Amino acid sequence: MPTAIVFVASQKGGSGKTSCTLNLGVLAAADGKTLLVDCDPQGSLTYWRDRRDAAQPDTISASLPGLEQAIVTARTQDYDYVFVDTPPHNYTELASAMRLADFILVPVRATALDLHAAEATLKLAATMAKRTTVVLTQCQAPRLFMEAPSVRQARAVFAGLGCRVADQAIIHRGTVEQSVALGKSVGEFEPEGPSVHEFRQVWIQVRREITSIRK
Ligand SMILES: Nc1ncnc2c1ncn2[C@@H]1O[C@H](COP(=O)(O)OP(=O)(O)OP(=O)(O)O)[C@@H](O)[C@H]1O
Ligand SMILES: [Mg+2]
Predict the structure, then answer these.
(1) The domain at 4-213 falls in which architecture?
(2) Is the CB of 52 under 6 A from ligand 1?
(3) What are the respective helix, strand and coil percentages of the chain, to the nearest 5?
(4) Which atom of ligand 1 is nearest to the CA of 88?
(5) Which of 44, 61, 93, 112 is 20 to 30 A (C-alpha) from 51?
């Protein structure tokens, strides 16, 4: 399989890009050779990597303008999946780098301001005709097996915009923050916990979509 380039992008700060990159990246590494690329000068993904005991997934940093060369190298090294963690607030460089993506995952918190802010990233992705999926992050927990009203409202907004949304929402849980400080994914931190189940469901959907665009 050729290397799949997965951008995790949203110009809104704190939407969950780095948390999605590292948690989905660890799950992807169980399925194929996986590289995580930290393209955010804040270096959050690198902070996580530097605290990590496990060797996988490989994690490097690159500037957005330098990403193309990193991807060329990754292709020669037979990576199956490359996840790119992107910075917020850098429209110009992000717009230029996004042409390298095969698939764009857009993490969005289910609040009115976050939904509003997500539109800029979604429009950018749409101009490039890239397969794009929103994942709702840091969500209120379901009650009685019903998703929280804010999550249902967010789904309705994105449905109105014609955007694909991951079936599984990521719930706001302390383990997501605690695991990062230890250089772990949520599954490594709490293997039987609910968070890893949520990220796994998202990864299964992302993997299916990547496979479908390669047919
Ligand atoms: N599901 C979650 N539950 C609890 N906390 C979360 C969750 N997802 C993210 N967070 C926390 O929210 C904050 C922002 O998340 P994260 O760093 O992943 O976002 P980001 O989009 O990468 O931010 P930035 O735009 O600054 O790069 C972090 O403190 C992170 O630990
Ligand atoms: Mg980040």
Answers:
(1) 3-Layer(aba) Sandwich (3.40)
(2) no
(3) 45, 20, 35
(4) 25
(5) 93
